[in-house]
Amino acid sequence: MENMKLLAEWSYEPAKAHRGYTGKTLKINVGERTFEAKDVTEDMKEKFVGGRGFGLKLLWDAVKDTTKWNDPENEIVISGGPLCGITQYPGSGKFYAVFISPLTEQTYDSNAGGHFGPLLKFAGWDALEIQGKSDKDVVVVIDGDEGKVKIFESPFEDINAYSITETLHEYFSDPNDINDRKHVSVITAGKGAEHTYWGCLNSSFWDSHRKIARLKQAGRGGGGTVFRDKKIAALVVKSHNLSGTANDPVDVDTLTKVGLKLHKEIFTLDAKQCRMRTVGTPHLNEIMNEYHLLPTHNYKFGQHPEADKIHSKVYEKLFTQGIPDGCWYGCTLACAKAVDHYTIKTGPCKGQVVTVDGPEYETVAGLGSNVGVFDPEFTIEANFYADHYGLDTISLGTGIAFVCECYELGYITKEHTNGLELKFGNKDDIMELIHRMAEGKDEFAKIVGMGVRRMKDIFAEKFGAPRDILEKIGMEGQGIEVSEYVPKESIAQWGGYFLTLKGPQHDEAWLIFMDRVNKQLPTFEDKAEALHYFPNFRTWFSLVGLCKLPWNDIEPADNATKYPPQEAAKVPEHVQNYVDIFNAVTGKNITKEELILQSERVYNFQRVFQLRLGKGTRKHHNIPDRALGPVFPDEWEARAEYYDNELKQAGVSPEGMPTEEKIKKLNEIRRKQWEELVDAVYKRRGWDRNGIPTVETLKRLGIDYPEVVAVVEKHAKPEDRW
Amino acid sequence: MITVNGETMEWEEGLTVQDIIERKKYTFPLLAVWINDSPVPREDFSSTKVPDGAKVQIIHMISGG
Question: Distance between CA A209 and CA A303 in Å, rounded?
């Protein structure tokens, strides 16, 4: 690669991490080409902890109430958190990206593995704010070895992820030592991120076994779209400050002891439990199908007779075995599976032999069953191109599934699609649509890339499709697409998806088994309690820089017998591990109750932030009919006995009732249940009837900053109090 | 008659925990079972007989995502 033209440069003294924090954050304005170091205050650590908490705090300070996703003051804030970068405990390399989303027009947070989060900290920074809009494509480099931040003019004509990531690893490392590339990590997006609202952020890590750069994704919310709107081609971080104690924990012995305990569990139990080490999250493929939770044909059905073709055993054979597939050092759960030596069949990379990261379960479902394709090779290729183009595989899958259903209903035709026959299962034309979207090739491809919410508007207004049906079958909440689990049979999961801070993503609560199968949440109050505890518990991972998977995709051998059922679901020993490693790194002395409190502060702060941006009230917690139950007779008939029984349990006799009438009746019942759920959840969370945190809640949590209280007071109405 | 997660189910002589799991098509690997509020170790699912009238809880440990 030719030398890159330097546009701006800034020097700094890299701060060493101490007890998990460097105490410094970096702000880069790529438009003005300015740089600024800020101190991390004790209050910031106390109230926001790190990671997503820092991201929200810094973004709050950077934007106005009126800021839109493509305004220069919108930022992408990247932060790992105090545990990010430890190597003793599995799953400790996550960063969280926070930004105003083009899809939801409010704050979004999305996380990725790879080495970027840890290397950013070891280069001296607890968080990185990127603001401004460049007038030309740039490569931003944070060099923790030299103590320099540089902005280069991008030399790349093709900015797609696989075209530039490895080149940048090579360019910024010792040319005589291929292993030196592990000291570099690169964030990229791609053309798809530029031409759609579904842009993801790819975060790289050097795979020293395969000798290639691999990619993990902060997939959701359109962070990659913001990245490309700022004309950033790549963001590079470099640091040789890599060791097991680079985070400078206060108590290495405890950290090591707790980590070893989990490593031992993983080595002895994973093969009998979730098989994360051999197949990763696709262990869920057949399980979701068997429990009617595998989204099929735009969430119409939860099962399909061809699901055996995407069974985890099929993927186990496709994934290369025997390579430790952790995406950060010390992760023995090693679920970052990959398909090696795959020959690309379509598009600009046709004929190339590549390694494909994943697919994960949600990609198998989204770019598989949900679009009616049961061919792993299609899913693998679509996964490759989604990463390459910088597209979120989940929104892409759910979005295309919506398009396919509209096509089959006759709402859109080949005239609209420029010749593509977008029926479920028509994999060639679906793949072609993905290529067209990445290129921004035609009007239809651009419309699809704006997401389900905007497609509903355009299909109704421009194409004459019936608005009421589109609203029923468009699987989005708050503007973002549902993340590949069928929610319609679990009232608690309606909340797990649609009473969230940012829309239906499964990182708040996955309660389907607890609710529907185990029957552990019989009342609305029980469901509300689960929708308080689990979202807050899971938020904590995002504050400290951890991956969720080692929490409950592996469990101690006696977890199921040692604790009563309700407690066992929390995996109490692992919760204690988190308390112990947090204290061992930071020197603090939190309890498991304070862990929840740490999350609750940030959770409520983010809720007020959404309110500040004009969202964050009850009307924005929308849920489509298909998330509540069947919409069309064939959905009902596929499980007629089950749905008839649902009516009977609600005191309605289905005998002699036409199916359309049954659907209408069940929808009425479930809409009423939804409203009851919303009330119960808002109450439990300390919010008013309109979903706004009360001032009392802010005070209890210690986040009653004047500017936060002012937002609540501006919007809260006395009649909405309980 | 027994109850499994609150729903009634026919009982027969010799019925084991594993039989119930198979009849219910519970294929999730992280199952925890209690019979009349007493836990049953996973390795004993096939050998543990369920008495008539028992309250059986078969808990799928939360997962996904």
Answer: 38
The Cα A548–Cα A539 span in angstroms is: 10
CB A637 within 8 A of CB A679: no
Q: Which of A275, A485, A569 sits opposite B64 (nearest CB)?
A: A485
Query: How many Å apart are CA A568 and CA A559, to the nearest integer?
Result: 6
Q: Do B29 and A272 touch (CB under 8 A)?
A: yes
Domains of chain B from N-terminus onward: 2-60 (3.10.20.30)
The ipTM value here is 0.92
Q: Please identify, among A464, A481, A498, the residue that sits at the C-terminal boundary of a domain.
A: A481
Residue A3: the pLDDT is 84
Segment A595-648, tens digit of pLDDT: 999 999 999 999 999 999 999 999 999 999 999 999 999 999 999 999 999 999
pLDDT (average), residues A475-490: 97
CA distances (Å), A550 to each of A89, A271, A496, A571, B44, in order?
A: 9, 14, 20, 11, 26
- Please state, as a whole number, how many other Cβ atoms lie within 10 Å of the Cβ of residue A413: 12
Residues A69 and A98 sit within 8 Å (Cβ to Cβ)? no
What CATH number is attached to the domain comprising A195?
Answer: 3.60.9.10
Check pLDDT > 60 for residue B64.
no
Which pTM was predicted? 0.97
A355-407 confidence digits (pLDDT tens): 999 899 999 999 999 999 999 999 999 999 999 999 999 999 999 999 999 99
- 3-state secondary structure labels for all residues of A566-579: HHHCCCHHHHHHHH
Query: In this structure, what token pair is assigned to residue A404?
Result: 């396919």
Query: Residue A437 corresponds to which tokens in the numbers above?
Result: 């979207």
Specify the CATH number for the domain of residue A586: 1.10.599
Which run of H or of E encompasses A659? helix A659-685
**Rounded Cα distance, A127 and A84, in Å:** 11
Q: Which residues in chain B are contacts of A507 at CB distance < 8 A?
A: 65
Q: In one letter, which amino acid is A378?
A: F
Q: Does the beta carbon of B2 lie under 8 angstroms from any beta carbon of chain A? A: no
Q: Do A519 and B6 touch (CB under 8 A)?
A: yes
The answer as to whether A256 is a domain residue is no
Give the domain range for residue A459.
268-481
- pLDDT tens across A397-420, in order? 999 999 999 999 999 999 999 999
The encoded tokens of residue A605 equal 């702060």
